[in-house]
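As agreed, record minuted below.
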Amino acid sequence: MARGHRIGEVSELPLVVSDGLEAITKTKQAVEVLKKLGCNEELERLIKSRKIRQGKGKMRNRRYTVRRGPLVIYGEDKGIVRAFRNLPGVQTASV
């Protein structure tokens, strides 16, 4: 895949799941869901990718760089943003 994504275990892209995922409120549950969907290798890649930025950005509160990972798109926020916000590289967006 482009940009080094590790998604060999994912059956098809885009990966669509049920609306029950919106009710997840804990980061631990979010990690379990992503692992069950086949994104375990991708999560490990993102955790290892946190590096200190080169140059003067460190002094300007942009100390770390993290690779991009999965994008979670949801319809209604029932706690899903709070669950996924602490995972490095995982982003959320509402429709």
In short: Residues 27-36 form the longest helix (10 residues). The helical segments are 27-36, 40-48, 80-84.
